[in-house]
Structures are given as structure tokens and as C-alpha cells.
């Protein structure tokens, strides 16, 4: 797939620091493979702490001139980046599928989704304004000013290698903050391609830096630097907690989009056509490798059997295979470790009384491919009830009353997303207000969009991305008092 690019210049095997494409300071590199075959795609620098310090210094030097530009001037560069991303959707999707594994149609969808954040924040940055406050004295004025927070760092995951970058970087850049991006070492090429397009769009040197490689040296230098004033991270709660501890000494502002254990509740008055189709979107997109996918599917007694049958019918229609193949609707998992976890959850559930109600077919011999399954008779002592499966497993839990469903849904330390299905407006408001999650969806499996805040409660994270809240994460609030005015 990499060899079929219309614009081969997008495939970069170097880090991007201060406007230059460079190797690691010590010459070290790591290999990136194709999840569908295990074959090597290419090499990227294994950047060191010294490389990271260079990127931080470059971003620091770029901060003053970048923030000095008008919001409109910054927006114009973002708009050019947006246009270039859309002009190169096909190649960006090929790169993503080669390193991440998702079907080409999903990759193209993600690239277009990623572009919406660039467009949205180019426009929203023009509206980053403060306000005045009525003062207690006639000769005093109080102004609330909004200013860019400073150098920002983004540590992004492998499951959405384009969208997680633009969702973090676009608001930072629009606000006037240079950025340092650390993409996953499993999917660095999408990030580097986006950086190449950003370079072509005209971002000044040092405004965008991309460091590839393993996380330890890069992350340690970022969290320990007093120059980096903001860190945005998407990943596991375990790693997020570690980063929070590491950021404490320099008191950085942080955004943490962490683990999930999303419930999806189907009440007995739900429109089952909507519920089934939405469950397919939520559960099986990206082979179940999303932080907001339905991890626990709770179905009321009266519709449990019918819902299971309808869902099973749809699951058996999924086509598993390499993302580059025509007609494939579900690709491989990212690596063998991920596949082993999913297999372990299935085996554990079956050993504790679950039933393998339906299974898709995976004709692929490579061990990262997992056939999608529907499990009935799921219970709360199973691993899949308490951990993110991060794979194509749909466990169905049975419940009787609304109160029981709410208690089951909230019985987790996580609170990222919750979904529920009902045609009763009274129930809709009751349930939405009682679910402990940062995002709640009624009669839909789609909650991620550029104009809406995205983030979690409890151990699912801090802060918000997307919407107006996403821009505020990169703005400092300053109160400016003027006294002694002669009126």
C-alpha cells in the first residue's frame, strides 16, 4: 500500500524538529509493521531525551512570534492545512491502513473526521476573546483576557492516529501554542504525513514538531520540562496516572482521555432497528479498538432474546480481513498482545457460563485476526465486565428494571461514554442524568464530533477536547485590573 501512494513524499521515515526532517540524535531506529501481515513497513527514529529537548527548545523559540500573529493569520494557515489534508485523503488513508490495519473506508472516514478539527478550530480561534467585569468602584476597570498557555505536548494513541493528533493540535495552534507531538510507536507514519502537509501549509519552523520512537525517554523529557506548559494524552488510565504524577513537579495543565468501560443499555421500549445498528457502529468500529465502544451491552428481559438474534444476524455479515482488501469491514487487531487479551476475555466468559451465541468468520491465518462474537449470559464476575476488552466481543447482560440497569451501568471506576435506547422521553431524561459518564448518547452510537466536548468522568480522565471547551484547554485566563482612572 505504501508503494501505491500518488504522493510518495508523504511517507516520511524521519522525525520533524524545528522544520527539519532528522534522524534520532544517536542514529537509533525502530521498525513499524503491518498488523495484517506482520511485514515491515519502514523505520522511524527512536528519538532520545536530547532530541526531545531540541524540539522543546524549537517550540519555545517559535512561541513568541506564533502568538503574536493575529488569530486570522493563524487561521489562514490552519485552513491551508485543512485543504491539503482533504486533497490527500486517499494517500493518508493508505498509510493509516498499512500501519494500523483498519479497512480503507474507515481510514478515509477518519482522515475526513480529523480534518474537521482543523477547520473547526481555525474558525473557533478567531473567537478566543475575553470579557469585561463590572467593577466595585467607578474609577476601576476589570478585563478578563485570554492568552495562549505556551508550549503544548500531545501524546497520541495508535487506534486513531490522525484524529487524535488534529483534535489536540488544531486548538493548540489556533490558540497560539506551538506543539510537540509524540505519536504511538505503532503508528507514526500518519503523524509524519500530517506534519509534511502542515509544513507545506506554511506553519513556521518549530510550531509543529513530531518525535517518533518509544515513549520512555520522550515522555520523561516532556513531563519534566518547565517549558512545556500543557500536556494532552489519550491512552490507558494506568499510563495517564503515571503522566499526571510526572507532571506534578512542574504543575502543568493536563488533558487526560483515559480508559473506558462503556455500558450500552437497551430498554424494552427501544426501537430495536436503531439499537442494533447503533450497537454495530459503537461495538465493531475499528475492530472494537476504541475507548468509547460499548464494552457491556445491557438488555432488558422483554427484548433480550430478540435483540440477541438481530445483533447476531448483523455480526455474521461482517467480513474480516486485511484492511486493503475490497469488501473487508473489519481488520486485524493492532498486535498479538491485543489479540491474546481478547481471546482471554472470551475464554474467561465461556468458563464462567456465557454462551457463544454467534460468531463471524475469520478466514485469515495470521494470529492478529479475531472473528467478531456475540456472547449471551454475561455476568459481572467476568473479566469483560470489569476490563476494556478492546476487541470485537459483544457480551449481552440481562436486566429487569430501570434502577437495575443504572446500577449495572455505573458499577465501574470508569466514566467515559454511556449509550442507551428508549422511546420514552421521561425515561430519557431520568437515565441521562443518572448515568456517571462524561458523554451520554440516546438512540445513537456516535458521539465524537468536532463541535462537541469529548472527555470522561471518574477514572476516565480530565479536561475536554472538541468544541469551545477544547480551545479553552490551551488558553490562560488573566484578570487585568485598572484602577485610579480619572473620570
TrEMBL record:
Keyword Signal in record: no
Matching Pfam families: Aldedh
Keyword Oxidoreductase attributed: yes
Entry's Gene Ontology BP terms: gamma-aminobutyric acid catabolic process
Domain named Aldehyde dehydrogenase: residues: 21-479
Coiled coil, from the record: none
Listed GO MF terms: succinate-semialdehyde dehydrogenase (NAD+) activity
Keywords, in A-Z order: Oxidation, Oxidoreductase
SUPFAM superfamilies named in the record: ALDH-like (SSF53720)
Active-site annotation: 257
InterPro entries xrefs: Ald_DH/histidinol_DH, Ald_DH_C, Ald_DH_CS_CYS, Ald_DH_CS_GLU, Ald_DH_N, Aldehyde_DH_dom, Aldehyde_DH_Superfamily
The organism's place on the tree of life at top rank: Bacteria
Record's GO cellular component terms: cytosol
Family: Belongs to the aldehyde dehydrogenase family.
Protein known as: Succinate-semialdehyde dehydrogenase (NADP(+))
Organism: Novosphingobium resinovorum
Gene that encodes it: gabD_1
Amino acid at each position: 500500500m505504501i508503494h501505491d501512494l500518488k504522493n510518495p513524499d508523504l511517507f516520511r521515515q524521519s522525525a520533524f524538529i524545528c522544520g527539519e526532517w532528522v534522524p534520532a540524535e544517536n542514529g537509533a531506529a525502530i521498525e513499524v509493521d503491518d498488523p495484517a501481515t506482520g511485514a515491515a513497513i519502514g523505520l522511524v527514529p527512536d528519538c532520545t531525551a536530547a532530541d526531545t529537548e531540541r524540539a522543546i527548545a524549537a517550540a519555545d523559540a517559535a512561541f513568541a512570534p506564533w502568538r503574536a500573529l493575529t488569530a486570522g493569520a493563524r487561521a489562514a494557515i490552519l485552513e491551508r492545512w485543512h485543504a491539503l489534508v482533504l486533497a490527500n485523503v486517499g494517500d493518508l488513508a493508505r498509510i493509516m491502513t498499512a500501519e494500523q490495519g483498519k479497512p480503507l473506508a474507515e481510514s478515509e472516514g477518519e482522515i475526513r473526521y480529523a480534518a474537521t478539527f482543523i477547520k473547526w478550530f481555525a474558525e473557533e480561534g478567531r473567537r478566543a476573546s475575553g470579557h469585561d467585569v463590572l467593577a466595585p468602584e467607578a474609577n476601576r476597570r476589570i478585563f478578563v483576557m485570554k492568552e495562549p498557555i505556551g508550549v503544548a505536548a500531545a501524546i497520541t494513541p495508535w487506534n486513531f492516529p490522525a484524529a487524535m493528533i488534529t483534535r489536540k493540535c488544531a486548538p493548540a495552534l489556533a490558540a497560539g501554542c506551538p506543539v510537540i507531538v509524540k505519536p504511538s510507536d505503532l503508528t507514526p507514519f500518519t503523524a509524519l504525513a500530517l506534519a509534511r502537509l502542515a509544513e507545506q501549509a506554511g506553519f513556521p519552523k518549530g510550531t509543529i514538531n513530531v518525535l517518533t520512537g518509544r515513549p520512555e525517554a520522550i515522555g520523561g523529557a516532556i513531563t519534566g520540562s518547565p517549558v512545556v506548559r500543557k500536556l494532552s494524552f489519550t491512552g490507558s488510565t494506568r499510563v495517564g496516572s503515571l503522566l499526571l504524577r510526572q507532571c506534578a513537579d512542574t504543575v502543568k495543565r493536563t488533558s487526560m482521555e483515559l480508559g473506558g468501560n462503556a455500558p450500552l443499555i437497551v430498554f424494552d421500549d427501544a426501537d430495536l432497528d436503531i439499537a442494533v445498528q447503533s450497537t454495530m457502529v459503537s461495538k465493531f468500529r475499528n475492530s472494537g479498538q476504541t475507548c468509547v465502544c460499548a464494552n457491556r451491552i445491557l438488555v432488558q428481559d422483554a427484548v433480550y432474546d430478540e435483540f440477541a438474534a438481530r445483533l447476531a444476524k448483523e455480526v455474521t455479515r461482517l467480513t474480516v480481513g486485511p484492511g486493503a482488501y475490497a469488501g473487508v469491514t473489519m481488520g486485524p487487531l493492532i498486535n498479538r498482545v491485543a489479540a491474546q487479551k481478547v481471546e482471554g476475555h472470551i475464554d474467561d466468559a465461556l468458563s464462567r457460563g456465557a454462551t457463544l451465541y454467534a460468531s463471524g468468520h475469520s478466514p485469515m491465518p495470521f494470529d492478529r485476526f479475531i472473528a467478531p462474537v456475540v456472547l449471551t449470559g454475561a455476568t459481572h464476575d467476568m473479566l469483560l465486565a470489569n476490563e476494556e476488552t478492546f476487541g470485537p466481543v459483544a457480551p449481552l447482560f440481562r436486566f429487569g428494571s430501570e434502577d437495575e440497569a443504572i446500577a449495572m451501568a455505573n458499577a465501574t471506576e470508569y466514566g467515559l461514554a454511556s449509550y442507551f435506547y428508549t422511546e420514552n422521553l421521561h425515561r430519557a431524561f431520568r437515565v441521562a442524568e443518572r448515568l456517571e459518564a462524561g458523554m451520554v448518547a440516546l438512540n445513537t452510537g456516535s458521539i465524537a464530533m468536532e463541535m462537541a466536548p469529548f472527555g470522561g468522568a471518574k477514572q476516565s480522565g480530565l479536561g475536554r477536547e472538541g468544541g469551545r471547551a477544547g480551545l479553552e484547554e490551551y488558553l490562560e485566563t488573566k484578570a487585568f485590573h485598572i484602577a485610579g482612572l480619572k473620570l
